[in-house]
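Lab notebook, bench 4. Still working through the backlog of constructs that have no structural model yet. Next entry is a single chain of 64 residues. Request: give me the structure tokens for it.
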Amino acid sequence: MPYLNWRKSSYSEADGNCLEVAHCTSGKISVRDSKLGDSSPILDFSPREWFAFSQAVRSRTLHR
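Model written out:
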């Protein structure tokens, strides 16, 4: 996989346990586990899939 610029949420736990997200030149959005770093499995989403996923997470978070 080509070099990706991984970004971690500003809401990340102090111990670093969080997801990291990278936008690929192919248009895909890649997600990995920050505590595993480069050895983490990577999930790839299309922009449409990422939008649906992030909306579902936001909705779930707001309704707690």
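Notes after review: The longest strand covers residues 19-23. The chain has one helix and four strands. Flag for follow-up if needed.
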